[in-house]
Amino acid sequence: MASLVETARGLLHGWRSRPAADWLLTAVALGGHGLLVALTGRGDILGVPGREQRLTIYTTGATVVALVGSFVTAAIAQYVSATGRRMRVLRTAPHLASQFRRNWVSILSATLFISGVCLLATALDTTEADPGGVHWAVEGVLILGAARAYRLLWLFNSVIQATDRDLADSPQPTTQHPSSSALG
Fold first, then answer.
1. Which DSSP helix (H) or strand (E) runs through 97?
2. Mean pLDDT over residues 57-69, rounded?
3. What's the pTM?
4. Residue 71 and residue 73: Cα distance in Å, rounded?
5. Contact 130, 49 (CB under 8 A)
6. What is the rounded CA–CA span in Å between residue 42 and residue 103?
């Protein structure tokens, strides 16, 4: 059991340091789902609804991803403005710094890409049955978005933990209470 946990931790650590792995994860998940739909004729989540409902899904996807993009910029601002020993290590240690930058850039670029694909799908999905398969492209970017959302949560949590630890380590200012004679 312990070796399984260690293996899982190793895989997770390897995945975190390689944002490009999200594309492989997306391809495997989308390909597996496409194969399942082709073999069974069922389970085409975005292909079953009519065009109007698909368009609503596309625009909602673009909106949600744009909102997440604003959280990404807030998280980056927190990362950049945080000070302290641990944050300095995160930003300057060669391996950690490049890993964090790659992750931030991959998340931010994915939000732009996902929003763009969702909005483009509203223009390209023109028939009731979507014979061109535009909904598969949207499903793919939504899977990519789920992987990048987990990556964002991991990064944001890492920054919060480092910032909190730095704050806990910093000397606390002593507060001086006014004496009762000064008040009265």
1. helix 94-124
2. 93
3. 0.82
4. 5
5. no
6. 36
Question: Residue 109: what residue type?
Answer: S
* Single-letter residue type at 178: P
CB 68 within 8 A of CB 142: no
Q: What's the CA gap between 79 and 66, in Å, rounded?
A: 20
Q: How many helices (H) and strands (E) does the chain have?
A: 7, 0
Q: How long is the chain?
A: 184
CB of 84 within 8 A of CB of 162? yes
Picking from 28, 25, 173, the residue whose alpha carbon sits closest to that of residue 106 is 25
At CA 104, angle to CA 98 and CA 110, rounded to 5? 130
Short-list 80, 83, 99, 98, CA closest to 163: 83
Residue 26 · residue 140 · CB < 8 Å:
yes
Q: Are 112 and 147 in contact (CB under 8 A)?
A: no
What percent of the chain has pLDDT above 70? 93
Residue pair 124/132 in contact by the 8 Å Cβ criterion:
yes
End-to-end CA distance of the chain: 68
**According to the model, what pLDDT value does residue 40 have?**
96
